[in-house]
Amino acid sequence: MPSNTYLRLTAAVTGSLALAAGLTGCSGSAAGSSADKGGGEKVVTVYSADGLKSDKGDGWYDKVFADFTKKTGIEVKYVEGGSGEMVQRAVREKTNTQADVLITLPPFIQQADGKGLLQSYEPQGSEKVNGANKSSAGKWTSVVNNYFGFVYNKKELASPPKTWEELLDAKYKGKLQYSTPGVAGDGTAVLIKSMHDFGGKEPAMEYLKKLQANNVGPSSSTSKLAPKTDKGELLVANGDVQMNFAQSKSMPNLGIWFPAKDGGKPTTFSLPYAAGLLDKAPHTENGKKLLDYLLSEEAQKLVSGVGGGFPARTDVKPTDANAVELTKLMTGVEVFEPDWADIDKNLTGYVDAWKSATGS
After folding, report:
1. Which end of the chain is more exposed for a tag (fewer CB within 10 A), N or C?
2. Where are the beta strands (DSSP E) in the chain?
3. pLDDT tens by residue, 41-50
């Protein structure tokens, strides 16, 4: 058996029975079983939003998980899905916790905290993380900084669209797609950014209602949209800078851009990968060790060069080629800070408004 076992969650694998079976096939016992809870197993199970692991095995997760196992002997079992999907899975398993570490995007990490899924733990190095990127109660800490964005096909489009309004053009009909708000973190980010750019919920929903005429339809995972864009099946899709920048290394037609409201500046907001220790985790101590390692200087120095993202620690300042390119990409883009407390409180209402407006 390889030192690291990665289990990829797909839309078809949604039951906890399937998850337990997948874990059993790798470890000889299902996560959360009495064998696991004995405390002797050198294993840690991670539920994560997509974007940090590569299908080719060269992503940030691939590298740091392998290094972590080499250093500690603790095997990392990995389950991936949309941000909201991972939180909902943890909710269903709350009385019999299957995973140890949850890594997801805002506002879903706040949602997980609000549902009592996380226990307090401040990883080593978390004191170097900006206060806006961690819980004041120590329930979660960002491990990779990131920003919301869009992608376009550079072969089919000489330059990216500049505004939201351009996306209403008939040439994008059936060639535009964004992941599902309330399910995918980046899909929810479409709501957050549009409400900011258009000045509120109502004008944002009016716009998204019009945009629906061009939208292909729902997608539970944002990472699936970049390959479609690179191939020309789509001209435009949503995403995030870290994931799309990493994907662009093997997808030559993929470009990143940031929509602006007509007459305004391109905007984005921080959308970090935030990690927390699940309450009643079957391997709590191993989960703490993994969180410590993800925030170690060693792992953080690899965030840009390997993962195409931004270090969560403010004292780690990479100068590699990717870091230089990422800085250039963000130049001239206005970064705003969402009201996460409001979004956490009203997310269901915002998603319901989107469903009503778009007929989704």
Report:
1. N
2. 5-7, 43-49, 75-81, 101-104, 118-119, 141-145, 148-153, 176-177, 236-240, 254-257, 267-269, 273-278, 310-311, 334-336
3. 899 999 999 9
